[in-house]
Specification:
Blueprint lengths: L1 E2 L5 H4 L9 E5 L6 H8 L5 E8 L6 E9 L2 H11 L12 E4 L14 H4 E5 L6 H8 L5 E8 L6 E9 L2 H10 L7 E2 L59 E5 L6 H8 L5 E8 L5 E9 L2 H11 L11 E5 L8 H20 L42 E8 L5 H8 L5 E6 L5 E6 L2 H11 L3 E2 L2 E7 L15
Antiparallel strand pairs: 1-3, 2-4, 2-5, 3-4, 6-8, 6-9, 7-8, 10-12, 10-13, 11-12, 14-16, 14-18, 15-16, 17-18
Helix pairs in contact: 3-6, 8-9
Amino acid sequence: MEESNATPKQATENLDDPPNSRLFLVTSRAVTEDELRESFCVFGDIQGVWVVKDKQTKESKGICYVKFAKSSQACLAMEEMHGKVLVDGTKPIKVFIAQSRSSTSHRDVEDEELTRIFVMIPKTFSEEDLKKTFKEYGDIEYCVIIKNKVTGESKGLGYVRYHKPSQAALAIENCDKAYRAILAEPRNKASATEDNISMMARSDYCADSTNPYSFPMGSAEPPSYAVMDRSTGHGRIGDISHCLMMSTRAALTQEQIFALFDIIPGMEYCELQRDAYGMTKGQALIRYSNLGSAVYAKEKLSGFEYPPGNRLLVTFVDDGEDRSSPVGRMAMQFVSTQVMSAVWNGPSSSQAMKPPGFPAPPAVSRIQTDVSLPAPKKLAPPDSKSKERLFVVFNPSPLPLDVLEDVFCRFGSLIEIHLVPGRKVGYIKYAEKQCADHAMAVLHGQFINGVKMKVMLADPPREESHKRLRTY
């Protein structure tokens, strides 16, 4: 396919600058570029209009793009124009925020992704202060301040959720730059506040090369840590430090890593490492306030699969402290002995490493979800006749077959699960329709091990059966 009336190369290089400033439209094939420009120009500065055409016939395919100068303009246009009729006698148009050109996702950007912003705030801010500061940009649904789970003190981070995407965009564009406001990815709707962030955190911090969304505690600049030299032959005690380096092959986000390591109390600092171009290096630096927390986090999380299939590597890094003295080495040996005993011997000895006010980290189960699942049930015989099939869409990637089987078998009469190779979809076969209906009702739109699932009946009606509702 091709785009008509394309702008010069220099005008198309920054189609995603700023983010979420380009609209994706589904229109009648009779709608022209001039009609689109005339209808949408009232919402702001249009930088380009493209009508996708068939290569052979050169006729419109009914798919168009409109690029605005600002995200707030695009969001307002989406809110006002979705469902409107541009030309008499044609169907109402559908308007969405277009995915970035670098995105691997093939879905439209959902409203929840455009209404919640993440900000850095003074630690003295209350939720009322946060709301008062940002209410000038639109109607606020709620405000949340992230607090230390042990002390209850603010971490200088917060969220503001607006009712409309255009309001969130206005806040990002116009608020004081010191707040470093950005969009936050959606979390599980079942979580009411950030205190409920679990190990399978759903949100993303889109940190850039300047690291504005790292979590330093008490220092404006992140400290520089050198990786320990393990070739010197020093004993294990000399390797222990407050700081950890986590390596991952999967594209984990700042908030996912933060939530994962924040399970162990005492975390002071967490930063996803990025190169000069803002690309993730697949590493994160974590610092704890005490050796016990760091040792426990290293032993519990190194080798842990998150997300499933991605094994994390966690190592100590030099925190710059001198522990060569006999007292320092004795202290480290004591911490190491107590924590290792708890790690290897299990819950029965967990109290040995738990200092006063140090709550035990929650156990990590095979399935991480906020959904209340029934107990596992036996599978139906392989030769059972399928009376209902479910179609499942996974985001960002499919879950392993054994995990899926563990989840979907709980509704009874599960025959088999089939994942489509090379795609993020699969089919679930049930021997009884009511079991499939129950699974769909419970699991649709929910998160399992950090993966969002859309669970629908296979071969649904073509048009509007699964159209998502607008919130405006």
